[in-house]
């Protein structure tokens, strides 16, 4: 079935999957002088990597290893953006408090980290408009600005990075090549046998196709999100910093250390059970076209129905408009995304099912924020192994 005649290809490294995780690892190997081939089942990346805010979001990562990883990713994103001229906006982010428990949590986080790598600044009702002309002043109690966040357009970036990797490092991309089987040193599509010293499986929510026995034993699930974007804002109106609200404080791991989190969580559960049920937390960013990307929700299951729930979008927009009133509020697109997420508290899944093969998956909704930094950790470890890694 997998015998290929005169259709073999060889490289030092084969990366399966051209989403952000695959691209990040291809770059990390190529920078270290390796000959890299990337294969993808589609004619371009169309998965979770192009269905997100485009936020590189260090503020959501806990201080220490993950924050450092996010900041390394941010620097790599900035370097690539400068070389390729893809849209990038180092506007930072602002989290807005309109309730007392939200304010208390933001104040506690600020006191813990005001002189840290998060680069925090306190925002008061008196100086809100100095940070964000888009945020609503009515009912605003206080906020937290972070200078670390970078915005890119994921659709543009994920489409252009392959050409950048090819031009600068000679990384070869083969599209429309679904990989059917992987074993140590080899991978097969319908018409090619790929040989490589190192094979990286970076196929997102679909990696169980190649390693079903690994997937079945893994603490991993799939998250479905719903998002939308407005029409372009007129007259060059800009959102400014990426915006989030109190619900976001419940979602990101960085804020879990705060004692003030519990009262907020209890109130939201009591007053807004719908938002808890569908994992809704509301954020917004703006791309280079002037469109505002708004989201999102989180539903966890192994299999999701393919239909958006309009009532979820309505709840997201209702919360969004309590914080922001853009000039152009009409929605031009709705979509959903599916990504893999660990359920055991792990922030990623890096696994070696056989010699020379590494699965990298399970970054949750933080692929844009963490992938480049994770690759800078994973690739040296793979290259430094003197003996095959088999777990």
Automatic annotation (TrEMBL):
Gene Ontology cellular-component terms for this entry are: cytoplasm
Q: Which cofactor does it need?
A: FAD
Keywords, ordered alphabetically: Flavoprotein, Oxidoreductase
Q: Where is the FAD dependent oxidoreductase domain?
A: 12-378
Q: Please give the superkingdom of this protein's source.
A: Bacteria
GO terms (molecular function) for this protein are: oxidoreductase activity
InterPro entries documented for this protein: FAD-dep_OxRdtase, FAD-dependent_OxRdtase_HpnW, FAD/NAD-bd_sf
Family listed: Belongs to the DadA oxidoreductase family.
| Protein known as | FAD dependent oxidoreductase TIGR03364
């Amino acid at each position: 079935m997998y015998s290929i005649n005169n259709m073999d290809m060889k490289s030092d490294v084969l990366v399966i999957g051209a989403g952000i995780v695959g691209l990040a690892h291809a770059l990390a190997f190529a920078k270290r002088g390796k000959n890299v081939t990337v294969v993808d089942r589609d004619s371009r990346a169309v998965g979770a990597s192009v269905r997100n805010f485009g936020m590189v979001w260090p503020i959501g990562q806990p201080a220490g290893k993950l924050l450092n990883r996010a900041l390394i990713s941010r620097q790599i994103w900035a370097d690539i953006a400068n070389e390729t001229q893809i849209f990038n906006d180092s506007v930072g982010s602002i989290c807005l408090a309109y309730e007392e428990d939200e304010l208390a949590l933001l104040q506690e986080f600020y006191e813990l980290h005001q002189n840290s790598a998060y680069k925090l600044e306190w925002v008061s009702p008196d100086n809100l408009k100095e940070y964000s002309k888009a945020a609503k002043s009515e009912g605003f109690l206080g906020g937290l600005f972070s200078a670390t966040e970078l915005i890119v357009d994921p659709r543009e970036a994920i489409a252009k990075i392959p050409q950048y990797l090819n031009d600068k490092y000679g990384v070869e991309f083969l599209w429309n090549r679904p990989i059917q089987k992987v074993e140590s040193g080899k991978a097969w599509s319908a018409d090619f046998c790929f040989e490589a010293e190192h094979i990286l499986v970076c196929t997102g929510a679909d990696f169980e196709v190649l390693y079903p026995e690994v997937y079945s034993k893994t603490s991993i699930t799939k998250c479905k999100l719903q998002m939308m974007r407005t029409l372009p804002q007129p007259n060059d109106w800009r959102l400014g910093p990426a915006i989030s609200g109190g619900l976001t404080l419940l979602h990101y791991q960085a804020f879990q250390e705060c004692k003030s989190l519990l009262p907020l969580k209890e109130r939201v559960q009591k007053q807004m059970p719908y938002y808890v049920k569908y994992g809704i937390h509301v954020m917004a960013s703006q791309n280079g076209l002037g469109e505002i990307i708004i989201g999102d929700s989180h539903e966890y299951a192994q299999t999701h129905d393919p239909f958006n729930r309009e009532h979820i979008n309505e709840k997201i927009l209702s919360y969004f408009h309590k914080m922001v009133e853009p000039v152009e509020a009409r929605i031009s697109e709705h979509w959903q995304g599916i990504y893999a997420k660990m359920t055991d508290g792990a922030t990623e899944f890096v696994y070696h099912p056989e010699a020379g093969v590494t699965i990298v998956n399970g970054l949750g909704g933080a692929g844009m924020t963490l992938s480049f930094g994770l690759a800078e950790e994973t690739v040296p470890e793979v290259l430094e192994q003197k003996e095959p890694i088999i777990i």
